[in-house]
Amino acid sequence: MLGRKSAGAAQVQPTAPVPARTIRFTTPVVETPGIFILTGWLWRFLRALMLLPAQFPVAVSALGASIAAYHFGGWISLAVLWSVVDVVLLVWWRRWPRSFREVVALRALATWRRLWVYRRHWQPVLVVSGLAESYLERQYLPQIRGVSCSAWADRVRVRIVAGTSPADFEKRVTELAHGFGAPSCRIEVRGPRDVVLEFPRYDTLADPIDALPIPEVPDLAALPVGICEDGEPWLLRLHGTHVLTVGVTGAGKGSVLWSAIRAMSSAITAGIAEVWAIDPKRMELSYGLALFAHYAADAETAVALLEAAVAAMQERAERYAGRQRVHVPTVRDPFTVVVLDEVAFLTAYHPDRDIRRRAENAIATLTSQGRSVGFCVLAALQDPRKEVLNLRNLFPDKIALRLDEASQVDMVLGEGARDRGANAHLIDPELPGVGFVKLEGSPVPVRVRAAFVSDADIDHMTAEAAPTGVEG
Ligand SMILES: Nc1ncnc2c1ncn2[C@@H]1O[C@H](COP(=O)(O)OP(=O)(O)OP(=O)(O)O)[C@@H](O)[C@H]1O
Fold first, then answer.
1. Is 447's C-beta closer than 6 angstroms to any atom of ligand 1?
2. Domain with 413 in it: what CATH number?
3. How far apart (Å, rounded) are the C-alpha atoms in residues 175 and 153?
4. C-beta of 250 in contact with ligand 1 (< 6 A)
5. pLDDT tier at 337, thresholds 50, 70, 90
6. Interface pTM, i.e. ipTM
7. Do 111 and 172 fall within a single domain?
8. Do 345 and 447 fall within a single domain?
9. Tens of pLDDT along 310-324?
Protein backbone atom coordinates (compact mmCIF):
# COMPACT_ATOMS: atom_id res chain seq x y z
CA MET A 1 0.00 0.00 0.00
CA LEU A 2 2.80 2.39 0.85
CA GLY A 3 4.24 1.70 -2.52
CA ARG A 4 1.15 3.02 -4.24
CA LYS A 5 1.27 6.55 -5.68
CA SER A 6 -2.05 7.48 -4.14
CA ALA A 7 -0.87 6.69 -0.58
CA GLY A 8 -1.04 9.48 2.01
CA ALA A 9 -1.83 13.10 1.19
CA ALA A 10 -2.23 14.16 -2.40
CA GLN A 11 1.18 14.80 -3.85
CA VAL A 12 1.61 17.89 -5.96
CA GLN A 13 4.42 18.00 -8.41
CA PRO A 14 6.47 21.08 -7.70
CA THR A 15 6.42 21.98 -11.40
CA ALA A 16 2.71 21.31 -11.92
CA PRO A 17 0.98 24.33 -13.44
CA VAL A 18 -1.23 26.34 -11.14
CA PRO A 19 -4.84 25.60 -12.25
CA ALA A 20 -5.51 29.27 -12.96
CA ARG A 21 -2.49 29.41 -15.30
CA THR A 22 -2.52 26.34 -17.39
CA ILE A 23 -0.13 27.79 -19.98
CA ARG A 24 3.21 29.18 -18.87
CA PHE A 25 5.49 31.19 -21.11
CA THR A 26 9.19 30.86 -20.44
CA THR A 27 12.23 32.18 -22.27
CA PRO A 28 13.72 29.38 -24.38
CA VAL A 29 17.31 28.46 -23.54
CA VAL A 30 19.45 28.68 -26.65
CA GLU A 31 22.99 27.39 -26.43
CA THR A 32 25.60 29.86 -27.68
CA PRO A 33 27.74 28.29 -30.41
CA GLY A 34 31.39 27.91 -29.39
CA ILE A 35 32.58 30.08 -32.28
CA PHE A 36 30.77 33.11 -30.83
CA ILE A 37 32.34 32.60 -27.44
CA LEU A 38 35.81 32.23 -28.99
CA THR A 39 35.30 35.35 -31.11
CA GLY A 40 34.23 37.27 -28.01
CA TRP A 41 37.36 36.23 -26.15
CA LEU A 42 39.56 37.06 -29.12
CA TRP A 43 37.97 40.49 -29.48
CA ARG A 44 38.51 41.24 -25.80
CA PHE A 45 42.13 40.10 -26.00
CA LEU A 46 42.85 42.24 -29.07
CA ARG A 47 41.14 45.25 -27.53
CA ALA A 48 43.21 44.89 -24.33
CA LEU A 49 46.35 44.59 -26.49
CA MET A 50 45.48 47.75 -28.42
CA LEU A 51 44.73 49.71 -25.24
CA LEU A 52 47.95 48.57 -23.57
CA PRO A 53 50.20 51.39 -24.93
CA ALA A 54 47.71 54.00 -23.73
CA GLN A 55 47.34 52.41 -20.30
CA PHE A 56 50.98 51.56 -19.66
CA PRO A 57 53.00 53.78 -22.03
CA VAL A 58 56.30 53.50 -20.14
CA ALA A 59 56.19 49.72 -19.73
CA VAL A 60 55.17 49.20 -23.36
CA SER A 61 57.90 51.57 -24.63
CA ALA A 62 60.50 49.83 -22.45
CA LEU A 63 59.44 46.47 -23.76
CA GLY A 64 59.40 47.72 -27.37
CA ALA A 65 62.85 49.30 -27.04
CA SER A 66 64.24 46.10 -25.46
CA ILE A 67 62.84 43.93 -28.27
CA ALA A 68 64.22 46.32 -30.89
CA ALA A 69 67.66 46.41 -29.21
CA TYR A 70 67.77 42.62 -29.04
CA HIS A 71 66.58 42.27 -32.62
CA PHE A 72 69.19 44.62 -34.07
CA GLY A 73 72.17 44.05 -31.79
CA GLY A 74 71.57 40.90 -29.76
CA TRP A 75 72.20 40.52 -26.03
CA ILE A 76 75.03 43.02 -25.95
CA SER A 77 72.99 45.96 -27.20
CA LEU A 78 70.17 44.95 -24.84
CA ALA A 79 72.62 44.97 -21.91
CA VAL A 80 74.05 48.35 -23.02
CA LEU A 81 70.55 49.82 -23.33
CA TRP A 82 69.56 48.75 -19.83
CA SER A 83 72.87 49.83 -18.31
CA VAL A 84 72.38 53.32 -19.79
CA VAL A 85 68.80 53.44 -18.52
CA ASP A 86 69.96 52.34 -15.04
CA VAL A 87 72.69 54.98 -14.92
CA VAL A 88 70.23 57.69 -16.02
CA LEU A 89 67.75 56.59 -13.36
CA LEU A 90 70.48 56.47 -10.71
CA VAL A 91 71.69 59.98 -11.53
CA TRP A 92 68.11 61.26 -11.59
CA TRP A 93 67.37 59.67 -8.19
CA ARG A 94 70.52 61.10 -6.56
CA ARG A 95 70.32 64.53 -8.16
CA TRP A 96 66.56 65.23 -8.18
CA PRO A 97 65.07 62.80 -5.65
CA ARG A 98 61.77 64.63 -5.46
CA SER A 99 60.99 64.59 -9.15
CA PHE A 100 62.33 61.00 -9.39
CA ARG A 101 59.90 59.97 -6.70
CA GLU A 102 56.94 61.65 -8.35
CA VAL A 103 57.67 60.76 -11.97
CA VAL A 104 59.21 57.30 -11.60
CA ALA A 105 58.86 55.67 -8.18
CA LEU A 106 55.26 56.59 -7.35
CA ARG A 107 54.06 55.89 -10.89
CA ALA A 108 55.73 52.48 -10.90
CA LEU A 109 54.18 51.80 -7.51
CA ALA A 110 50.76 52.89 -8.81
CA THR A 111 51.02 50.49 -11.77
CA TRP A 112 52.00 47.67 -9.47
CA ARG A 113 49.24 48.41 -6.96
CA ARG A 114 46.67 48.74 -9.72
CA LEU A 115 47.48 45.30 -11.12
CA TRP A 116 48.38 43.40 -8.00
CA VAL A 117 45.95 44.79 -5.44
CA TYR A 118 43.01 46.52 -7.10
CA ARG A 119 42.51 44.74 -10.44
CA ARG A 120 43.15 41.33 -8.90
CA HIS A 121 40.72 41.75 -6.00
CA TRP A 122 38.28 44.21 -7.57
CA GLN A 123 35.51 41.84 -8.60
CA PRO A 124 35.43 39.61 -5.48
CA VAL A 125 35.64 42.55 -3.08
CA LEU A 126 32.97 44.58 -4.82
CA VAL A 127 30.63 41.64 -5.30
CA VAL A 128 30.93 40.44 -1.71
CA SER A 129 30.57 43.95 -0.30
CA GLY A 130 27.41 44.42 -2.36
CA LEU A 131 28.65 47.08 -4.74
CA ALA A 132 28.12 45.05 -7.93
CA GLU A 133 24.71 45.60 -9.51
CA SER A 134 22.58 43.12 -11.43
CA TYR A 135 20.24 43.94 -14.28
CA LEU A 136 18.55 41.41 -16.60
CA GLU A 137 20.76 38.65 -15.22
CA ARG A 138 23.94 40.56 -16.06
CA GLN A 139 26.33 41.87 -13.47
CA TYR A 140 27.65 45.43 -13.64
CA LEU A 141 30.78 46.44 -11.75
CA PRO A 142 32.09 49.94 -11.04
CA GLN A 143 35.16 50.47 -13.23
CA ILE A 144 38.65 51.47 -12.18
CA ARG A 145 39.57 54.60 -14.17
CA GLY A 146 43.01 54.98 -12.71
CA VAL A 147 45.22 54.45 -9.68
CA SER A 148 47.69 57.00 -8.39
CA CYS A 149 49.95 56.83 -5.37
CA SER A 150 51.13 59.52 -2.99
CA ALA A 151 53.82 58.96 -0.39
CA TRP A 152 51.29 57.46 1.99
CA ALA A 153 48.10 56.47 0.18
CA ASP A 154 46.62 54.96 -2.98
CA ARG A 155 43.88 56.88 -4.77
CA VAL A 156 41.63 54.73 -6.92
CA ARG A 157 39.45 56.71 -9.32
CA VAL A 158 36.25 54.84 -10.03
CA ARG A 159 33.40 55.21 -12.51
CA ILE A 160 30.37 54.04 -10.62
CA VAL A 161 27.53 52.06 -12.19
CA ALA A 162 24.76 54.25 -13.65
CA GLY A 163 21.83 54.31 -11.25
CA THR A 164 23.97 53.96 -8.11
CA SER A 165 25.26 56.78 -5.97
CA PRO A 166 28.50 57.58 -4.09
CA ALA A 167 26.51 57.05 -0.89
CA ASP A 168 26.56 53.28 -1.65
CA PHE A 169 30.35 53.41 -1.42
CA GLU A 170 30.27 55.64 1.64
CA LYS A 171 28.24 53.00 3.47
CA ARG A 172 30.82 50.32 2.70
CA VAL A 173 34.11 52.01 3.53
CA THR A 174 34.91 49.40 6.17
CA GLU A 175 34.34 46.48 3.77
CA LEU A 176 36.44 48.19 1.11
CA ALA A 177 39.29 48.94 3.53
CA HIS A 178 39.41 45.35 4.77
CA GLY A 179 38.91 43.97 1.27
CA PHE A 180 41.96 45.77 -0.10
CA GLY A 181 44.04 45.36 3.06
CA ALA A 182 44.13 49.06 3.98
CA PRO A 183 43.84 50.58 7.46
CA SER A 184 40.94 52.78 6.29
CA CYS A 185 39.12 54.08 3.24
CA ARG A 186 37.80 57.53 2.45
CA ILE A 187 35.51 58.63 -0.36
CA GLU A 188 35.79 61.80 -2.40
CA VAL A 189 33.15 62.69 -4.96
CA ARG A 190 34.68 64.42 -7.99
CA GLY A 191 31.69 64.64 -10.30
CA PRO A 192 28.80 62.64 -11.74
CA ARG A 193 29.66 58.92 -11.55
CA ASP A 194 33.20 59.92 -10.64
CA VAL A 195 34.49 59.04 -7.17
CA VAL A 196 37.91 58.55 -5.68
CA LEU A 197 38.59 55.91 -3.04
CA GLU A 198 41.56 56.79 -0.87
CA PHE A 199 43.33 53.89 0.82
CA PRO A 200 46.23 54.77 3.16
CA ARG A 201 49.09 52.27 2.86
CA TYR A 202 50.35 52.83 6.38
CA ASP A 203 49.59 55.05 9.33
CA THR A 204 51.55 58.27 8.94
CA LEU A 205 50.33 59.46 12.32
CA ALA A 206 51.48 56.46 14.33
CA ASP A 207 54.36 58.32 15.99
CA PRO A 208 53.78 61.19 18.40
CA ILE A 209 54.62 64.64 17.06
CA ASP A 210 56.80 66.88 19.18
CA ALA A 211 55.66 70.41 19.91
CA LEU A 212 55.91 72.44 16.70
CA PRO A 213 58.15 75.49 16.37
CA ILE A 214 56.45 78.70 17.50
CA PRO A 215 55.69 80.97 14.54
CA GLU A 216 57.28 84.39 15.01
CA VAL A 217 54.36 86.22 13.42
CA PRO A 218 51.44 83.84 13.87
CA ASP A 219 48.56 83.83 11.43
CA LEU A 220 45.65 83.62 13.87
CA ALA A 221 43.50 82.18 11.11
CA ALA A 222 45.94 79.32 10.38
CA LEU A 223 47.84 78.24 13.47
CA PRO A 224 50.04 75.15 13.07
CA VAL A 225 48.80 72.68 15.69
CA GLY A 226 49.75 69.30 14.23
CA ILE A 227 50.06 67.25 11.07
CA CYS A 228 47.51 65.97 8.58
CA GLU A 229 47.62 62.38 7.38
CA ASP A 230 49.20 63.46 4.09
CA GLY A 231 52.11 65.06 5.96
CA GLU A 232 50.89 68.63 5.46
CA PRO A 233 50.67 70.89 8.52
CA TRP A 234 47.32 70.96 10.26
CA LEU A 235 46.41 74.64 10.42
CA LEU A 236 43.72 75.62 12.89
CA ARG A 237 41.69 78.78 12.42
CA LEU A 238 40.89 80.62 15.65
CA HIS A 239 40.38 84.21 14.50
CA GLY A 240 36.85 84.53 13.14
CA THR A 241 35.49 81.27 14.47
CA HIS A 242 34.94 79.11 17.58
CA VAL A 243 36.35 75.62 17.98
CA LEU A 244 34.98 72.65 19.91
CA THR A 245 37.28 69.68 20.55
CA VAL A 246 35.49 66.49 21.49
CA GLY A 247 37.04 63.26 22.74
CA VAL A 248 36.78 60.68 25.50
CA THR A 249 39.03 60.93 28.49
CA GLY A 250 42.64 60.47 27.44
CA ALA A 251 41.88 61.25 23.77
CA GLY A 252 44.37 64.11 23.82
CA LYS A 253 42.14 67.19 24.01
CA GLY A 254 44.81 68.88 26.10
CA SER A 255 47.31 68.61 23.25
CA VAL A 256 44.93 70.45 20.90
CA LEU A 257 44.37 73.25 23.44
CA TRP A 258 48.07 73.56 24.21
CA SER A 259 49.19 73.38 20.59
CA ALA A 260 46.84 76.25 19.76
CA ILE A 261 48.06 78.33 22.72
CA ARG A 262 51.66 77.55 21.81
CA ALA A 263 51.16 78.53 18.17
CA MET A 264 49.90 81.99 19.18
CA SER A 265 52.32 82.53 22.06
CA SER A 266 54.37 85.18 20.22
CA ALA A 267 51.16 87.13 19.68
CA ILE A 268 50.51 86.79 23.43
CA THR A 269 54.01 88.12 24.15
CA ALA A 270 53.41 91.00 21.74
CA GLY A 271 50.17 91.80 23.56
CA ILE A 272 47.95 91.47 20.48
CA ALA A 273 46.37 88.22 21.69
CA GLU A 274 45.33 87.00 25.09
CA VAL A 275 44.02 83.81 26.61
CA TRP A 276 41.34 83.65 29.28
CA ALA A 277 41.48 80.15 30.71
CA ILE A 278 38.89 78.08 32.53
CA ASP A 279 40.29 74.89 34.01
CA PRO A 280 37.75 72.96 36.11
CA LYS A 281 40.09 69.97 36.40
CA ARG A 282 42.92 72.24 37.65
CA MET A 283 45.37 69.85 35.99
CA GLU A 284 45.33 70.85 32.36
CA LEU A 285 45.86 74.58 32.06
CA SER A 286 47.17 75.54 35.51
CA TYR A 287 50.66 74.57 34.42
CA GLY A 288 50.90 77.56 32.08
CA LEU A 289 49.28 80.11 34.39
CA ALA A 290 51.73 82.85 33.45
CA LEU A 291 50.51 82.80 29.85
CA PHE A 292 46.93 83.68 30.69
CA ALA A 293 45.37 87.10 31.10
CA HIS A 294 42.66 85.57 33.31
CA TYR A 295 42.35 82.16 34.88
CA ALA A 296 39.52 80.44 36.77
CA ALA A 297 39.17 76.97 38.16
CA ASP A 298 36.08 76.87 40.41
CA ALA A 299 32.58 77.28 39.03
CA GLU A 300 31.78 80.66 40.56
CA THR A 301 34.94 82.39 39.27
CA ALA A 302 34.64 80.56 35.93
CA VAL A 303 31.16 81.96 35.35
CA ALA A 304 32.32 85.39 36.46
CA LEU A 305 35.18 85.13 33.95
CA LEU A 306 32.76 84.19 31.16
CA GLU A 307 30.48 87.10 32.03
CA ALA A 308 33.46 89.45 32.08
CA ALA A 309 34.38 88.21 28.61
CA VAL A 310 30.82 88.90 27.43
CA ALA A 311 30.98 92.41 28.88
CA ALA A 312 34.35 93.09 27.21
CA MET A 313 33.00 91.75 23.93
CA GLN A 314 29.90 93.94 24.11
CA GLU A 315 31.93 97.01 24.99
CA ARG A 316 34.12 96.39 21.95
CA ALA A 317 31.11 95.78 19.71
CA GLU A 318 29.63 99.09 20.85
CA ARG A 319 32.85 100.94 20.00
CA TYR A 320 33.00 99.27 16.58
CA ALA A 321 29.34 99.86 15.73
CA GLY A 322 29.08 101.91 12.56
CA ARG A 323 32.89 102.36 12.37
CA GLN A 324 34.60 99.06 11.92
CA ARG A 325 33.35 95.73 10.60
CA VAL A 326 36.48 93.64 10.86
CA HIS A 327 38.58 93.05 13.95
CA VAL A 328 42.30 93.62 13.58
CA PRO A 329 44.29 92.46 16.64
CA THR A 330 46.01 95.37 18.39
CA VAL A 331 47.36 95.97 21.88
CA ARG A 332 44.21 97.94 22.66
CA ASP A 333 41.88 95.35 21.21
CA PRO A 334 43.73 92.04 21.44
CA PHE A 335 42.37 88.87 19.93
CA THR A 336 40.80 87.15 22.94
CA VAL A 337 40.60 83.38 23.17
CA VAL A 338 38.47 81.94 25.95
CA VAL A 339 39.88 78.46 26.53
CA LEU A 340 37.35 76.26 28.26
CA ASP A 341 38.50 72.83 29.35
CA GLU A 342 35.63 70.36 29.99
CA VAL A 343 32.84 72.78 29.15
CA ALA A 344 30.19 70.30 30.39
CA PHE A 345 31.37 70.85 33.96
CA LEU A 346 29.72 74.28 33.82
CA THR A 347 26.83 73.57 31.45
CA ALA A 348 25.67 70.12 32.59
CA TYR A 349 27.43 68.56 35.54
CA HIS A 350 27.46 71.42 38.08
CA PRO A 351 24.76 70.86 40.70
CA ASP A 352 23.84 74.57 40.92
CA ARG A 353 21.19 75.32 38.30
CA ASP A 354 21.95 79.01 38.37
CA ILE A 355 25.62 78.38 37.54
CA ARG A 356 24.61 76.15 34.63
CA ARG A 357 22.17 78.74 33.27
CA ARG A 358 24.60 81.66 33.60
CA ALA A 359 27.42 79.64 32.00
CA GLU A 360 25.23 78.58 29.09
CA ASN A 361 24.00 82.12 28.51
CA ALA A 362 27.52 83.52 28.53
CA ILE A 363 28.89 80.83 26.18
CA ALA A 364 25.93 81.25 23.83
CA THR A 365 26.45 85.03 23.72
CA LEU A 366 30.18 84.73 23.12
CA THR A 367 29.82 82.11 20.40
CA SER A 368 26.99 83.86 18.61
CA GLN A 369 28.36 87.42 18.70
CA GLY A 370 32.09 87.23 19.38
CA ARG A 371 33.54 86.25 16.01
CA SER A 372 33.61 89.59 14.25
CA VAL A 373 34.91 91.57 17.23
CA GLY A 374 37.88 89.30 17.91
CA PHE A 375 36.56 86.89 20.55
CA CYS A 376 36.94 83.14 20.14
CA VAL A 377 35.85 80.26 22.34
CA LEU A 378 38.13 77.22 22.22
CA ALA A 379 36.37 74.51 24.21
CA ALA A 380 37.00 70.87 25.07
CA LEU A 381 34.28 68.33 25.77
CA GLN A 382 34.11 64.61 26.51
CA ASP A 383 30.51 63.79 25.66
CA PRO A 384 28.97 65.46 22.60
CA ARG A 385 25.31 64.56 23.27
CA LYS A 386 22.74 67.36 23.25
CA GLU A 387 21.82 66.77 26.90
CA VAL A 388 25.40 67.64 27.79
CA LEU A 389 26.02 70.56 25.46
CA ASN A 390 23.07 71.78 23.49
CA LEU A 391 25.19 74.71 22.28
CA ARG A 392 27.46 72.56 20.18
CA ASN A 393 26.04 73.91 16.92
CA LEU A 394 27.17 77.40 17.87
CA PHE A 395 30.75 76.22 17.29
CA PRO A 396 31.41 76.44 13.54
CA ASP A 397 34.57 74.30 13.72
CA LYS A 398 34.75 70.99 15.49
CA ILE A 399 37.45 68.41 16.06
CA ALA A 400 36.54 64.77 16.70
CA LEU A 401 39.25 62.96 18.65
CA ARG A 402 38.61 59.40 19.86
CA LEU A 403 34.89 58.99 20.54
CA ASP A 404 32.90 56.36 22.41
CA GLU A 405 30.24 55.53 19.85
CA ALA A 406 29.85 55.55 16.10
CA SER A 407 26.73 57.73 16.37
CA GLN A 408 28.76 60.51 18.00
CA VAL A 409 30.86 61.08 14.87
CA ASP A 410 28.06 62.77 12.95
CA MET A 411 27.04 64.68 16.09
CA VAL A 412 30.46 66.30 16.11
CA LEU A 413 31.47 66.58 12.45
CA GLY A 414 28.05 66.82 10.85
CA GLU A 415 25.85 64.41 8.98
CA GLY A 416 27.59 62.00 6.63
CA ALA A 417 31.05 62.43 8.19
CA ARG A 418 31.23 58.83 9.33
CA ASP A 419 30.08 57.55 5.95
CA ARG A 420 32.90 59.51 4.40
CA GLY A 421 35.40 57.63 6.55
CA ALA A 422 35.74 59.71 9.75
CA ASN A 423 35.82 56.67 12.02
CA ALA A 424 36.65 58.60 15.19
CA HIS A 425 35.09 55.82 17.29
CA LEU A 426 37.69 53.38 15.92
CA ILE A 427 40.76 55.47 16.75
CA ASP A 428 43.31 53.39 18.62
CA PRO A 429 43.48 54.40 22.31
CA GLU A 430 47.27 54.15 21.89
CA LEU A 431 47.13 57.17 19.57
CA PRO A 432 46.15 60.16 21.72
CA GLY A 433 45.90 63.41 19.78
CA VAL A 434 44.66 61.66 16.61
CA GLY A 435 41.31 62.85 15.31
CA PHE A 436 39.29 64.00 12.34
CA VAL A 437 38.56 67.54 11.19
CA LYS A 438 36.85 69.12 8.26
CA LEU A 439 39.10 71.60 6.54
CA GLU A 440 37.78 74.70 4.84
CA GLY A 441 36.31 74.14 1.41
CA SER A 442 36.03 70.36 1.61
CA PRO A 443 33.31 68.12 3.02
CA VAL A 444 35.76 65.22 3.28
CA PRO A 445 37.03 64.76 6.86
CA VAL A 446 40.79 64.73 7.20
CA ARG A 447 42.68 62.61 9.75
CA VAL A 448 45.08 64.67 11.83
CA ARG A 449 47.30 64.40 14.89
CA ALA A 450 47.92 67.23 17.31
CA ALA A 451 51.48 67.89 18.39
CA PHE A 452 52.25 66.95 21.98
CA VAL A 453 53.21 69.94 24.12
CA SER A 454 55.13 68.59 27.10
CA ASP A 455 55.49 70.18 30.53
CA ALA A 456 59.03 71.24 29.56
CA ASP A 457 57.64 72.97 26.44
CA ILE A 458 55.09 74.82 28.57
CA ASP A 459 57.84 75.86 31.01
CA HIS A 460 59.82 77.16 28.08
CA MET A 461 56.83 79.07 26.72
CA THR A 462 56.02 80.68 30.05
CA ALA A 463 59.66 81.70 30.46
CA GLU A 464 59.70 83.23 26.95
CA ALA A 465 56.32 84.92 27.00
CA ALA A 466 56.19 88.04 29.15
CA PRO A 467 53.55 87.27 31.75
CA THR A 468 50.62 89.58 31.46
CA GLY A 469 49.59 89.03 35.06
CA VAL A 470 46.86 86.57 35.88
CA GLU A 471 43.64 87.88 37.29
CA GLY A 472 40.77 85.91 38.64
N1 LIG B 1 49.11 64.64 20.74
C2 LIG B 1 49.58 63.72 21.58
N3 LIG B 1 50.60 62.93 21.20
C4 LIG B 1 51.06 61.99 22.03
N5 LIG B 1 50.58 61.75 23.26
C6 LIG B 1 49.58 62.51 23.70
C7 LIG B 1 49.02 63.52 22.87
N8 LIG B 1 48.02 64.11 23.55
C9 LIG B 1 47.96 63.50 24.73
N10 LIG B 1 48.89 62.54 24.83
C11 LIG B 1 49.08 61.62 25.96
O12 LIG B 1 47.81 61.17 26.39
C13 LIG B 1 47.56 61.51 27.75
C14 LIG B 1 46.13 62.03 27.91
O15 LIG B 1 46.04 63.24 27.20
P16 LIG B 1 45.10 64.44 27.66
O17 LIG B 1 45.17 64.64 29.13
O18 LIG B 1 45.39 65.58 26.77
O19 LIG B 1 43.71 63.81 27.32
P20 LIG B 1 42.31 64.49 27.52
O21 LIG B 1 41.52 64.18 26.31
O22 LIG B 1 42.48 65.93 27.87
O23 LIG B 1 41.73 63.66 28.73
P24 LIG B 1 40.87 64.19 29.94
O25 LIG B 1 39.58 64.67 29.38
O26 LIG B 1 40.75 63.03 30.85
O27 LIG B 1 41.69 65.31 30.53
C28 LIG B 1 48.60 62.58 28.09
O29 LIG B 1 49.05 62.45 29.38
C30 LIG B 1 49.72 62.32 27.13
O31 LIG B 1 50.67 61.46 27.71
1. no
2. 3.40.50.300
3. 17
4. yes
5. very high
6. 0.96
7. yes
8. yes
9. 999 999 999 988 887
